[in-house]
Write a structure and sequence with these properties.
Blueprint lengths: L1 E7 L2 E8 L2 E8 L18 E2 L9 E9 L12 E12 L1 E6 L3 E7 L4 E7 L16 E2 L7 E7 L3 E7 L5 E7 L14 E6 L8 E6 L3 E6 L4 E7 L2 E11 L5 E5 L3 E6 L4 E8 L10 E8 L10 E4 L3 E6 L2 E6 L16 E6 L11 E6 L3 E6 L2 E7 L14 E8 L7 E6 L3 E7 L5
Antiparallel strand pairs: 1-2, 2-3, 3-18, 4-11, 5-6, 5-32, 7-8, 8-9, 9-10, 11-12, 12-13, 13-14, 15-16, 16-17, 17-18, 19-20, 20-21, 21-22, 23-24, 24-25, 25-26, 27-28, 28-29, 29-30, 31-32
Length: about 425
């Protein structure tokens, strides 16, 4: 039922109550234009400090390409790895990947640091110094970091300070208000999002030019680019979410899973059906993916124009068919507007899936029998020693020894990272 509508010309604010959850969003009736600008890459990442490798040695691998920004973490500005390579960074506990920059938390038992590297054109590294080499962000020394995410050209880091207060900091590009700081001024050092002061973050995910944050008081906030408007302060998107929540953001869309009530919601750009609701449109407000209702989602991943969900060892995918990234064969010629199970990952095939990740036009899945990737294999991003621009329409096994020791995988534009448990790698 609609609770209230306040008309403001062609825009109106609407609040809709559904199952004790209050949805608040803006309706823009003036735009009929479909944005056909090429989608360069996706943004999907969030970390809440629950990785179970806190007391174990770890090795970090990367593969794919970086052209001038040192993304692969070796200290070189431009290079290409066609197969997984070990990085000279030890004791990494978690990593977050943006379109052109990286955050990694390091803990050797005596020292805890948040490292950053990659492009720093808009201040998204949160520090000065050589951008192409992993170096600590001095601002966060002595602070307890428990959540982080990287967007297109911005970063968000959540901490608990010495007074046991929760703070959320943002830095980098703010062209569309994606820092939540009530302006569009870029920041080259961490600045606190005052509107979120002393709110514990349960989940955070940054899109290309927007951010979504869930807090412990049951609210989900949005700020940044929203259709054709810019939200510069955290806008309450959902209320009453007093349960575990996962958030994944793509280039222009978001997927939210509510763990206890077993519901999956989506909103944002939907020109390829990436919202999974059976329709296509430029922008769609919050809707429920009804075909996934009643199922507990263990993991979400969003690519530029596609989405994935891991449910009971079944990998579901929907969205753009381009470049083979749906992983269901060459006979699929149209976008998938509803979630579709990838038959390759079936219990009978001994491929129990543990993690999923999506890039611009490719997907990588971790299972107990190995790493598998498909989609556009440009620049070695799939780790298949492929030098050309070959497209893979079905899952291909990536040559990585001891995949059972991988504790996390992160993927973005044309590169990939795997966090490996143990002193020795593959």
């Amino acid at each position: 039922a609609v609770v209230s509508t306040q008309s403001t010309g062609e825009r109106g604010e609407m609040k809709r109550a559904t199952n004790n959850i209050l949805l608040t969003y803006f309706v823009n009736c003036s735009s009929k234009r479909i944005n056909r600008t090429p989608l360069r890459y996706f943004q999907r990442s969030y970390h809440v400090n629950n990785v179970d490798n806190a007391n174990e040695d770890t090795v970090l691998y990367s593969w794919g390409s970086c052209w001038s920004n040192g993304l692969l973490g070796t200290g070189k500005e431009a290079e290409k790895h066609l197969t997984p390579q070990v990085l000279p960074i030890k004791n990494v506990k978690w990593i977050e990947t943006g379109a052109n920059h990286i955050l990694a938390f390091v803990d050797d038992g005596n020292r805890k640091e948040l490292l950053s590297w990659g492009e720093n054109k808009f201040g998204q590294l949160g520090r000065n110094g050589k951008p192409h080499q992993p170096n600590p962000i001095e601002f966060f020394q002595g602070k307890e970091i428990y959540a982080a995410s990287c967007g297109g050209e911005h970063s968000i880091v959540c901490v608990k300070n010495v007074q046991n207060e929760f703070q959320t900091f943002a830095f980098g590009l703010s062209e569309h208000g994606q820092l939540g700081l009530n302006d569009k001024q870029n920041r080259d050092s961490p600045s606190e999002i005052v509107a979120l002061r002393n709110k514990k973050v349960k989940a955070v995910s940054c899109g290309q030019n927007f951010s979504v944050i869930a807090t412990g008081d049951g609210n989900v906030y949005f700020f940044g680019r929203k259709d054709e408007e810019n939200i510069v302060l955290p806008l309450t998107l959902l209320q009453g979410i007093n349960e575990d929540i996962n958030i994944s953001c793509g280039w222009g869309h978001s997927i939210i899973s509510l763990q206890n009530s077993k519901r999956v919601l989506s909103f944002g750009c939907n020109i390829h059906g990436q919202l999974g609701t059976g329709t296509k449109n430029q922008w769609q407000d919050i809707s429920e993916i009804k075909s996934l209702s009643g199922h507990r989602v263990s993991s979400l991943a969003c690519g530029s124009t596609l989405s994935l969900a891991l449910i009971d060892n079944n990998v579901f995918i929907w969205g753009s068919v381009g470049d083979g990234k749906l992983g269901i064969g060459e006979t699929q010629k149209e976008d998938l507007l509803l979630p579709h199970r990838i038959p390759f990952f079936d219990r009978s095939q001994n491929t129990e899936v543990t993690k999923i990740a999506a890039g611009t036009d490719h997907v990588i899945v971790q299972s107990k029998s190995g790493l598998f990737g498909w989609g556009f294999g440009q620049h070695g991003v799939l780790g298949l020693e492929e030098r050309g621009l070959k497209t893979f329409h079905t899952p291909q096994k990536i040559p990585f020894k001891h995949p059972e020791n991988i504790v996390d995988i992160k993927e973005k534009r044309d590169f990939f990272f795997a966090l490996f448990k143990g002193k020795k790698g593959s």
